[in-house]
Specification:
207 residues; alpha/beta; putative 2-phosphosulfolactate phosphatase; 2 domains; 6-stranded mixed beta sheet; 6 strands
């Protein structure tokens, strides 16, 4: 979205993605999909952040399916406010959440095929700490998982890239090829001012 994409529509099912995308003007759509970190044959892009350039995506809807992330978004698409966060846009997401002044905030990590994910917990801790500190610590952490995420962030906040490389998914990407620049991109903190917001079920647009 930083590079001018119109919106992202998320799918857990590849066949539904293809069927929905075909109803759009070919010049105004791109299909993105990966499984296990690998781009799926027949799709325009995978999920490398560096491949999503302005030249490729500007003005287009991105029809996207990933191993974990889009499945998680589909599961919580019924909520009133839904934002997509990564470390680069942590600050603006946190500030949007604070501005809403809601009693309860749910932080959902994608995980890895139903299992724990180190990098998701790291990001959850980063987000929770920013909110906590900017609300004068008037925040109740309601479960042990988020307490652990806070501890994880405090342990790795000075070496985020190191944490991403330590995580099993970072090692998985390394085994697939040269993902060094992708990992560096994902480890940058508070450098984007984009708030990806669900504007209709399954459709996310910058706000």
């Amino acid at each position: 979205m930083k590079n001018g994409a119109d919106s992202i529509q998320v799918f857990s099912d590849l066949a539904l993605l293809k069927d929905t995308a075909k109803r759009w003007d070919e010049d105004k759509r791109l299909m993105l999909a990966e499984r296990g970190g690998k781009k799926i044959k027949g799709f325009d892009l995978g999920n490398s952040p560096l491949s999503v350039t302005t030249e490729k995506v500007k003005g287009k809807r991105l029809f996207m399916s990933t191993t974990n992330g889009t499945k998680s978004l589909k599961k919580v698409q019924h909520v009133e406010y839904l934002f997509a966060m990564a470390l680069p846009n942590r600050k603006v997401i946190a500030e949007r959440i604070i501005s809403l002044n809601k009693k309860n905030v749910l932080i959902v990590g994608s995980g890895w095929e139903g299992s724990y994910s180190l990098e998701d917990s790291l990001a959850a801790g980063a987000l929770a700490l920013y909110i906590k500190e900017n609300l004068n610590n008037k925040v109740n952490i309601s479960n042990d998982e988020l307490q652990a995420s806070l501890a994880l962030w405090n342990s790795w906040k000075n070496d985020v890239l190191g944490c991403l490389k330590t995580a099993t998914h970072g090692k998985r990407l390394k085994s697939l090829g040269d993902y060094e620049e992708d990992l560096k991109c994902c480890s940058e903190l508070d450098c984007l001012d984009i708030v990806p917001t669900q504007v209709e079920r399954g459709v996310i647009r910058a706000s």
